[in-house]
Specification:
Blueprint: H1 2-25, H2 29-40, H3 48-55, H4 59-82, H5 91-102
Helix pairs in contact: 1-4, 1-5, 2-4, 3-4, 4-5
């Protein structure tokens, strides 16, 4: 439904904002902006090698940074979801539903 999709998009947006704030607070805003496309799936015209060079990293280090960003994002999403359920055991099911709604 429209409501469920809006809920999912809002949860995703709040999770993204949470991760971005974490990067900003640690002085890594530039790194977040360079890695963000790999988080949101907007990498069609991007090269990991180019992004790594721009950030002064190896391609391997960039891949690790992308992996960590995705893990941080997942935790942020789970945290957002946990604020909407009464039982922590419900988080996994809600996360699956969020993915289903967005696919």
């Amino acid at each position: 439904t429209w409501f469920d999709r809006q809920w999912a998009l809002n949860v995703m947006d709040r999770g993204l904002q949470s991760v971005q704030t974490k990067f900003d607070q640690s002085g890594k805003s530039k790194q977040f902006e360079a890695l963000k496309p790999w988080l949101i799936g907007d990498t069609e015209n991007l090269s990991q090698a180019d992004a790594a060079a721009k950030l002064g990293m190896t391609t391997g280090a960039l891949k690790v940074a992308i992996h960590r960003l995705r893990m941080d994002f997942r935790v942020a999403i789970e945290t957002e979801i946990s604020q909407t359920v009464s039982d922590p055991a419900e988080v996994a099911g809600e996360l699956r539903y969020l993915i289903e709604v967005l696919s």
